Amino acid sequence: MSSGTADVEPRARSTSKAFDFDSWPGSRALRLIERHARFYRRLWLVVVSGALEPVFYLLSVGVGLGGLIGPVMGPAGHLVPYKDFVAPGLLAVSALNGALNDSTFNVYGRLKFEKLYDAVLATPLGAQDVALSEIGWAVTRGVLYAVPFLIVMASMGLIVSPWALLALPAAALVSLATAAAGVALTTYMKSWQDFEYVVLVSLPLFLFSGTFFPLDVYPHAIGLIVEWTPLYQGVAILRDLTLGAPSWALLWRAGYLAAIGAAGLAVAGRRIARLLLV
Amino acid sequence: MSVLTPSRGDDPPDPPYAQETAERALRPATLDPVPGSLELSVRAFRCWLVMYRRTWRSSVWSSVLGPIFYLGAMGYGLGSLVDQHGTAALGGVPYPVFVAPAVLAVLSMNTGLTNGMFPVFGAVHWNRIYVAARASMLRPSDIYRGHLLFMVMRIAMNAACFLVVMAAFHLIRSWWAVLLLPASVLLGLAFAAPVAAWTVTLQTITPMNYVIRFGSIPLMLFSGTFFPLSRLPGWLQPVAWATPLWHGAALCRSLSVGTVTAGSAAIHVGYLAGLSAIGLWAGARSYRRRLYV
Fold first, then answer.
1. pLDDT by residue (tens digit) across A23-62?
2. ipTM > 0.90 (yes/no)
3. Where are the domains of chain A?
4. B126 CB burial (10 A radius; 0-12, 13-18, 19+)
5. Best mutation site among B60, B78, B84, B99 for testing chain A: the one with the most A CBs within 10 Å?
């Protein structure tokens, strides 16, 4: 203990200012997001390689295999080339992929092994801030994956409508639902072996959520189940937007994703507080 | 107890210890013969077997269900769209029959790669099994070959499970398919042997992620697996011919559909066997350098 003045100083500064950024709701969470951003500056190639993965799928399944597939029934009831059909599906997958790893494996590592949050909770940040920033960072990474994919789509002429301007916020919504559910569920994980369930859920989501083929391939009952998956809702929003067939139905789809995000955020904050503050 | 703790410095040795050293001194100086390479490799293999008996459950999901998901989505879901358009480009077979042997090849590649990377890295850095094994009479090349034996076992197990699924869905069209199991094991070994030889030299896990993202995923997508090679741009086709997965997938497909010819099979098998042999040679070398510091 050197002197008491150092303890008082920050408070004095924050009351003296008319505009105080740190008093905004959620602004403290930005500190932890900044930490992750600084950490990943050295690992930028990891982010690039993750963003490339859906592009590889687009070239392989969309262009390569797509040539063997005739036109497919698009959202507005007219036929579209297969690569136009599959591209928005893969855009949703790239938003999901970006958010998934960070909100599950990395959160678990920080929680159990790096003990990062124990350190964070010794600062003015609380458990709710930790949840918010982890979800915020995962969404950031999802957007970092989605932007290059959108650029690739545009350069390949796969975007046919100005409604596609809304595709980026919609992709962010997919990331939000994924990240919030991911962080919330990760707080219940007990060992690395439990993460097999993440693969077990994400792989069928990726393959069967209307990404690669329309729902009418399935029997009607299975189609009804698939409609409830968050990725299907994201794929439907993005496909309608990039193919230029928006409808009011997109609003409740977006509301569904936002609701998953809000529920995940609430659960995650409470669980992190329970795991670390008791 | 005291036999296990050697004496230090000037301390007089404990009586039982002294007794044993005395007995040893009286015995004629003959050593047990060192077991052969094969037996030592099998001993290293059994260590992995003991571990696997504890952890096999968690590997079942990804290794058995994963390829079945791919077969369902690609073969049947997407395949229903492909088959509406005609199957001439696929050699006249329905798309599920076309893609199933390729999924088998991808499964063997991925089993070889994942088993040749993270467990090898972990055995050097995390649980240090290799470091412990080095203290025994096992030489680095025995440690390497023992671990490879375990990888081969995992490749064969995963391939066998998938072959049962293929047969159950009537996706096998020829009796040559009895050779699918050895073919997929050879393909997996052609990936596992060189990759393990490389992984043992690593200091961080980041390069392994790059191999997956920039290596195995493009290989899986563009090696004549999900669509015939003729759909690739002309300049890319020779590149695909040079990749091990193309040889493996082409071999598996020719065995499963029944279009196999002696010449093409010899080329594919020769390529994969050559790659495995290079891997075995390089692995014995790199393990020796890494473990005898």
1. 666 788 898 999 999 998 888 888 888 899 999 999 999 9
2. no
3. 24-277
4. exposed
5. B78
